[in-house]
Amino acid sequence: MTGRALIWVAPLALAACAGPLSTLDPGGHIARDIALLWWVMLAGAGVITAFVLVLLGFAWGAPRRTAQGRWVYGLGLWFPLAVLTALLGVGLWVGERILPRDDGAVTVHAHAFQWGWQFTHDGADGQPVESDGVLHIPAGQPVDILVSSQDVIHSFWVPRLGGKMDAIPGRVNRLRVQTDGAGRFDGLCAEFCGLGHAGMRFVVVAHDDWPPADPDTDPDTGPDTTPETDTNGQEFP
Amino acid sequence: MTDLAHPEPVAVGGSSDLPPNPPQRALRLHRELARVWANDRGWWGQVTAVSHTTLGLRFMATAFVFFAIGGILSMLIRTQLATHQGAFLDTELYNQIFTMHGSIMMFLFAIPMLEGLGIWLLPKLLGTRDMAFPRLTALGYWCYLFGGLIMLGALLFGVAPRDGWFMYTPLSDATHSPGINADVWLLGVTFVEISAIAAAVEITVTILRQRAPGMKLTEMPLFAWYMLGTAAMMLVGFPPLIAGSVLLEVERAFDWPFFDVARGGDPLLWQHLFWLFGHPEVYIIFLPAAGAMSTIIPVMCRTPILGYGAIVAAILGLVFLSFGLWVHHMFTVGIPHMALAFFSAASVLVAVPTAVQVFAWIGTMWKGRPELHLPMLHILGFFLTFVMGGLTGVMLAIVPFNWQAHDTAFVTAHLHYVLIGGFVFPMMAAATYWMPLITGKARVKGLGEAAFCVILIGFHGTFFIMHLTGLLGMPRRIDVYPDNPEWVALNLTSSIFGFVLTIGFAMFAVDLILQATLGQRARRDPWRAPTLDWAMPVPSPNYNFASLPLRRHQGGPAREVIHALARGVGALPGAPRGRREVLVTTAGNARPCHVAVLPGNTALPLVLSACIAVFVLLMLASLYALAAVALAPVAGLVWVWARGMAPVGDLAPVTIAPGVDMPVHHRATPPTLAQSGLHALLVADGALFASLLFGLGFLSVVTQGPPPPPALVQNPAAGIALVIGLAAVAGAAVFARLLAAGYAGRGASWAGLGCNLVALVALAWLAVQLDDPRAHARDALRAAMLGYVGLHVLVGAAMAAFTADQFRRGEIAPQTGRGAIAAWGNWQMFTAVTAGITVAVVLVQAGAP
Ligand code: HEM
Ligand SMILES: [Cu+2]
Fold first, then answer.
1. Whole-structure pTM value
2. I need a surface site. Which of B112, B628, B749, B814 has the fewest CB within 10 A?
């Protein structure tokens, strides 16, 4: 019975987690590590919540002898310390796996402005190639994105590939992403940046051939006809 | 009556208890006290009121109105987000609305609400008759009201702040946010924060110096511990925000480039200053609510709290830890690897003291026999909500996950779980618990329970799925999402339940109104509580206690001491001298020190805050010269205020209990309340100075902008000005100390005044020599620090003049006391130290290439 139910529920649950901007539908190992971290934390949080609520439920009734040490130190101090230490360890370990390191990864630039993105990668001839609103990266290998800003603070985020990194005027921040394979991934500006914030979207295209001979050729759908630039920004001169 | 039944031993636990006074007629005492402590009649009486009961309730009522306004704004947000096209508000207005929702909820609802609760409750709980500085209470209220009205007015005129409640620059600077929207936030919030600092100062002093005789610090009600922690955090936590706001406003108004990258500034400096305030802020909001829980749960469970000592340790731990976490709001700004690990660890660690409290509360429930009264329902609401909010908080402290969830609807969900779970539910518990004491009425049954259920369902319906919405990638602060149909159903659900939630809050409000108007007369001490707040008639009289509770009256059932206290058995019975008197005690053991005579009703606080409001409005209108002029009446009124502390009337010692005479505060051995208050204020002032120092250090060490132009180019004139200025400031401090120590007479006050004036001239001269503050951020910050010192020298000069004037009036004499001498001495020392540090910093920077 439960097995049958699972067969039905599991795909539904997974489908609910899918989406072009879903952190729970990872498109690379970094996002997958973080998603796994989330599921583990969710399970842990669920158990702890249930535990606390059960304790609360049993509180009703006649007075009981209550050992102060057990409650305040046992449950209050040692229990969270143990859980948190374990969690912190896992967090640091995942953090190590996803941080950029000096391994000669391909480097591309993401330059944010109100309200759009300008991306740069090195072309076949070694010359920088600029593209508006579409970031080209090699598929299946680590890529470092150098994030910078023209005016106010923005934030580069491709949920299916990994965490976000702020674009701050006067600084260049480095973010590592990696895809499983060729494909398109939606991205957006995550830091509130004024009137055009909601429309400050972009697309990441991961190519098997690198540098891409014809960047406008979409690996999934053929030639890219819609330049995915920010249109919203133009509504507000 | 207990007192008469068994005459107590005089010495209890080392601190000698006072002997009881002979009982008198309760009604006569009541009439005498009510006359002295009453507000003036009618509407004027509301203007001049300084009573903590009146003002505490007014703080809370006003905060509730702002909660309703913020709630209406949230309904507009939810309506806009209900569909993906959101064709309801335009983006500009939407941005104003969510910014105002956040700002109102944080600055005009949560903080004033907890200040109001503290102001209203603490004197009752501690067994005294008012807060330490009643006029300051009133000043705080008016500043809060006027600041709030300015912000609301801006919303009505469509020029409200629109850069998010944390106002990140450069988005909020003059280039990217032209118009007065950002100024409204910076000036309005700073204006409101006057009330936060005022409340923090007087809460600290009241808790430390006005506890009923014999109420040791280590035995005082937990709520007082929580408020002490809160006040300490406010004293240290608000100054960074004030410093940041002043700097940003100066940048916007006068182009001093503190945060401008092109000229060596750094937008991250704003983020650090903001979150240095912003993170402690969250605990500032949570601690008083937790204090209410620690007060109510034991009563509802008919047993003392489990683990008093552990809870006090947890409070202190939270106060300490919460200043080490601010960076967890900035995990995505690109900070070094090790710093990430450190702040991540510190952030998860803060869950430990919280867990100690949660399990102490549940343990208390196990220990006792919980009764499901309405306050207890809201406490259950707290558990059902806050625990999850805390757990998502721990998740967000884990850096990799933070990078995904930061700035999404997940964070919006988390913050509402902690704010509504950790503050609004406990406040509703508190409201329902203390309503009988506020109104003297008992509850009308039924509606309150229904309101609770609707709120609980509405809340979780709104915010639970927002975690998922966020994980599916929806960022916060967006108004439309045309390309994301997958978020529509989730958002629509949130919006629908959002309205359910609002209906619930409306029902809650109606329930309170029903109780206040239609309720039956409440019994005294309806909850059979062990705390002094219930050891008085309901509704509470404006003087609280006809006589102040002695040690024998504390800690037992409140209802057993009501009569004894009403009949004047406690200390300092009645108001036979026709003035407002409270007992001042030592900080540790609450041994009686002296009797403080508090000021009566006055419109001065209103007038002063109205003058400050004029200043703020002129600043908003960019009329800077006029604004400077408008500071003159402010200064004049502060002088008048200080004159109000001069010794008048009968300065003879007061008999507080048989055979125990206490001096009045003018002639008491220091520290008096005012001096303790000054110490607390100087802590905040020091935090302000430290924020500026932090800024200069940050810009010099972390920021990698263009280097500053060579500073102070070996200019001998500047060097001379520097030396003269510093010497003069030091001289003023020496004279003030000599006077305070009794080695000098009135001449020292004139000498001190002269020194301060010389220092002012030297500083002005130095200011002319210094580099143009608009050239580079470090120049600007140096100039800001010199301005800080200059302001302190100016105040020092005024205090010296005030002291000289007191000598002239004969107010400083053996029979009348020492006037403002001690306060001036402290101020002058503080000024000298900050001036010394500033000069050292300026020299180091000038020497450095
Ligand atoms: C009455 C029920 C409430 C509802 C339905 C509600 C709803 C919301 C919504 C929809 C947002 C905007 C999310 C976004 O930016 O996309 C928001 C933001 C916020 N809310 Fe509430 N809220 C409520 C009560 C509160 C309370 C009681 C507090 C604080 C004590 C609070 C503090 C905040 C803050 C600080 C923000 C962030 C504003 C910003 O991004 O600048 N809210 N709320
Ligand atoms: Cu942006």
1. 0.94
2. B814
